[in-house]
């Protein structure tokens, strides 16, 4: 996704940071705590601002997307592939595109399919070139199709346009645009984290601008004063990490063990950019060693863009320029970069089946950022991070608002709920590490990551993997700290 509450919980972060600070993702993350802070007071104030923005964004987005947050045993369809052709107009703050969606029916007698479409206006829907009837209600597009039985596949081509208020941020004066949560604000799709699909994304942009998107750039073609770039994401991913960034970026590159790192900047010198991102290759080594799984893509890009963006997407992350300035002033201010990179394993490739288990995305990524800080700056720096997590959680608990990390629903998350998902989740990971010991804990994380890489998970999946490494039950620990069933 990516969110939403440590001082810097960013993945969904910018969701809320739209021109007027309004976010979309059902789970939002705002700038996380910048590691080993020099001024805790200013950080806490910043976090409160992020939380307030986040809450406003969440409610608006839930209303604007009709996001599905309840658990369903089986989605009616399984989307296999999205072929999206999109032309964003930065000056007019509009989008126009087509989404060709290939799917398989999961049920018998399917005669209609439904997608999320935000506030987009749908121009037409065709199946094999034949127009199909459709209606839009409550931010959902419902299409009538000839009956499909379980296992049968079909494809719909949906043409649309709109002026999205959420999910995408335009900066006409800077010739920049980038996506944030949620994807259904800029293209028709299914906003459900468990429904993973491959993606082909074609972007048409002014010829002088640079685009970055998911997966591999396979072609670039000049068409008049525009250029079309085609991106292929071959590993299935949830739609909430579909995305792109476009702007007058300069690109610096370096390679580490078969992965090309790209750093996209506008206002920093090359020397400054290399200093800002100097730890990125080391993060790759660290996360791969702890995950026991190689990074899934051939490239990883980090973009320093306008506004307050802090958003992870598959194979790249968009972050705000303030992050770069902080790192230039203090090398320990890399929490955000580490948190977002961690999501390429925990969140993007191992994804919570539904938002009720969101802590498996955000709590683990938040903890792994602290773990990287320990690797980079030592045990004291790690414990400083953990103490921040603990303190934020204790404030929620003291207010009588502690909850199970497995939520009954994620339809109306509060500020405190977000603190639980991020800070309590990370703190519980630390406590689990203390409970199991380093060797068993890190082995358990490897078992979990290897077993479920590329899949959707629930908390019991994580528990089973950690118990396997522990060699004994963790019922009591999970009952107390995760499910909140007491001692």
**Strand count, sense and closure of the main sheet?**
8 strands, mixed
Count of β-strands: 22
* Spans of at least 5 consecutive residues with low confidence: 1-71
Q: Kindly report the spatial arrangement of strands forming the biggest sheet.
A: 5-4-8-2-1-11-14-13
Mean pLDDT value: 88
Q: CATH H-level name of the domain at 79-170 and 179-207... which superfamily?
A: tricorn interacting facor f3 domain
Helix content: 25-40%
What best-fitting shape do the alpha-carbon axes yield? Answer: globular
CATH topology name of the domain at 79-170 and 179-207 = Immunoglobulin-like
Q: Distance between termini?
A: 33 Å
Strand content: 25-35%
Counted by DSSP, the helix tally is 11
Radius of gyration over alpha carbons? 21 Å
Written overview of the protein:
The protein is an alpha+beta fold and 487 residues long. The chain has a domain at 79-170 and 179-207: tricorn interacting facor f3 domain (Immunoglobulin-like), CATH 2.60.40.1730. 32% of the residues lie in helices and 30% in strands. It is built from eleven helices and 22 strands. It has helices at 40-65, 270-276, 280-291, 321-329, 335-342, 359-377, 379-398, 415-436, 438-452, 459-470, 475-482, and strands at 77-89, 94-105, 110-116, 121-127, 130-131, 134-137, 140-148, 153-162, 168-171, 176-179, 196-206, 210-213, 216-223, 226-238, 244-247, 250-256, 259-265, 299-305, 310-313, 316-320, 351-352, 456-457. Strands 5-4-8-2-1-11-14-13 form an eight-stranded mixed beta sheet, with no helix packed on it. Helix 8 (415-436) crosses helix 9 (438-452). Mean pLDDT is 88; it is low at 1-71.
